[in-house]
């Protein structure tokens, strides 16, 4: 059995233990990051949509940082949005704060009906630094 090379951000391991999943796994020079939401310290959703998106990106960035990456290393993005027709534009006003300069990563946006009380989730695949690609 292969042992997974798991990356944990500082201070959030209990959240992943309770829900029984890994925040990110390093494999073959890539970092596969689980979906991140805009949860407050107690795990509850941030009620303001744009603040929730910022928290989701901050949680994502904590995992990327723990793996020695930045958002510039992100290759592929998948976002999940509850009711995208009414929320997409407000969410996309926040994205440039974190996205960086072009060329941007690939992106798939998926409309969903439920995200455990959240309105936005983001998961990514990133390229690991050369020194950590093994």
Structure at a glance:
InterPro entries: RutC-like_sf (IPR035959), YjgF/YER057c/UK114 (IPR006175), YjgH-like (IPR038743). With 134 residues, the chain is of the alpha+beta class.
Keywords:
single chain; 134 residues; alpha+beta; 60s Ribosomal Protein L30, Chain: A; six-stranded mixed sheet; 4 helices
Write the layout of secondary structure elements.
Layout: E1 5-7, H1 13-19, E2 24-27, E3 30-37, H2 49-66, E4 74-82, H3 84-94, H4 96-99, E5 106-112, E6 120-127
Parallel strand pairs: 4-5
Antiparallel strand pairs: 1-2, 2-3, 3-6, 4-6
Helix pairs in contact: 2-3
Organism: Pseudomonas abietaniphila
GO molecular function, one term: deaminase activity
Protein name: Enamine deaminase RidA, house cleaning of reactive enamine intermediates, YjgF/YER057c/UK114 family
Description:
The protein is an alpha+beta fold and 134 residues long. It has a single domain (5-132), classed as 2-Layer Sandwich (60s Ribosomal Protein L30, Chain: A). The protein is built from four helices and six strands, in the order E-H-E-E-H-E-H-H-E-E. It has helices spanning 13-19, 49-66, 84-94, 96-99; strands spanning 5-7, 24-27, 30-37, 74-82, 106-112, 120-127. The longest helix is centred in the middle third of the chain and has 18 residues, at 49-66. It is globular. Pfam families: Ribonuc_L-PSP. This is Enamine deaminase RidA, house cleaning of reactive enamine intermediates, YjgF/YER057c/UK114 family.
Question: Which geometry do the CA atoms define?
Answer: globular
Structural class, judged by helices and strands? alpha+beta
CATH architecture grouping = 2-Layer Sandwich
Q: Helical residue percent?
A: 25-40%
Q: What is the alpha-carbon Rg in Å?
A: 15 Å
Q: In percent terms, what proportion of residues is strand?
A: 25-35%
Q: What's the SSE pattern?
A: EHEEHEHHEE
Mean pLDDT: 91
Q: In CATH, what is the homologous superfamily? A: RutC-like
Number-wise, the strands total 6
Highest-level CATH class: Alpha Beta
Distance between the termini: 18 Å
Pfam family, one: Ribonuc_L-PSP
InterPro entries: RutC-like_sf, YjgF/YER057c/UK114, YjgH-like
Protein name: Enamine deaminase RidA, house cleaning of reactive enamine intermediates, YjgF/YER057c/UK114 family
GO molecular function: deaminase activity
